[in-house]
Amino acid sequence: MADENKPMKYARYAVGEIVLVVIGILIALQINNWNEDRKENIIENKILIEILNGLREDLLDIRSNMNAHREGLKACEYYHDVFTHEQVHADSINYYYEYLTKGYISIQNKSGYESLKSRGLELVKDDSLRNDIIKLYEQDYPFIMKLEEQDPEGNFYDNYYKEINNQISPNLIFNKDGEIESIQLPLHVTETEQKKILSYLWKIKNDRMIILNIYEKVLKNLLRLQSNIERIQTKG
């Protein structure tokens, strides 16, 4: 007599095999997803390190430019005293002569950010961190580059150097090597010429202060981003 329970046994075995196959597929998919997530995390970490290294270099450039603009402000004060016949150190003329109308460029290390864009900005999973990265590279950096290199008002050399130089060059004292050594004071300028130069000095000072204020904001954003990336690296 045939075993009437065999079909049921075979059915249970078949169901069991299917369940095992499904479980195996699910485990394989989970492992695959885990591997993909791990790969993405590794890539994200490498790009964040690249961005972090770039930020450290950018920090040096920004602080260097800020210090130079501050020296430009001191130069405005020095030349204000020169043209208003206040007492100054005549042998400091060379130092401040260099800084008065000097302009600067903004050197920005964007390789890390470009790598991130090529991979997709969503690679950075932290929304706040991703937004800070985008703001710095898409808003802050272009703004300071425009201020330093494209804004006509910030072109101090072309705008003011020639006329200021015309007033002081007759009184400059040079050494045997042709370097500016000192200046013969007081300057003999008319009231009209004096007011013109003082208005230039005011304009240079005002524009440098605006640039410094912008730099301060960008510096704050950069330092916050740097700190957040370092915090993530420490946790990792």
UniProtKB/TrEMBL annotation:
Can the keyword Membrane be found in this entry's annotation? yes
Q: Which domain of life is it from?
A: Bacteria
This protein is called what? DUF6090 family protein
Q: What is the lineage of its organism?
A: Bacteria, Pseudomonadati, Bacteroidota, Flavobacteriia, Flavobacteriales
Entry annotated with the keyword Transmembrane helix: yes
InterPro entries documented for this protein: DUF6090
Name the keywords, alphabetized: Membrane, Transmembrane, Transmembrane helix
Membrane-spanning regions, if any? 12-31
